[in-house]
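does this look right to u?? FE2/S2 (inorganic) cluster version
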Amino acid sequence: MALRICAVDDIRVGKAIRVKAGEHTIAVIRNKEGEVFALDDKCSHGEISLSEGFVGKDNTIECWAHGAKFSLETGEALTLPAYEPVARYEVIIDNGDVFLEIDEA
Ligand code: FES
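got this back:
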């Protein structure tokens, strides 16, 4: 099911916001080029919100706690101390709005 999350313009370029969608807490992130990505908000290394992290030029978000970097495109953990990926959500942009493909199952 595709859920409207926010407007693209609600997220500053190079920043992230945290949204709740049902059971999910999701970091919705704009890279330096303004493209939108969505990852599970919880760092796979600890109880830290990735939306409070740093968006890198290399399409990554870095957890502020211990510096693990995750790929915006795949959710893969690229640097230690995290080694587990975080879930990634399909983003649909329609008419300036951000929709996420969320499996409510
Ligand atoms: S909690 Fe994110 S890197 Fe440790």
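The beta strands are 2-7, 16-21, 24-30, 36-40, 54-55, 60-62, 69-71, 88-94, 97-101. idk if thats expected tbh
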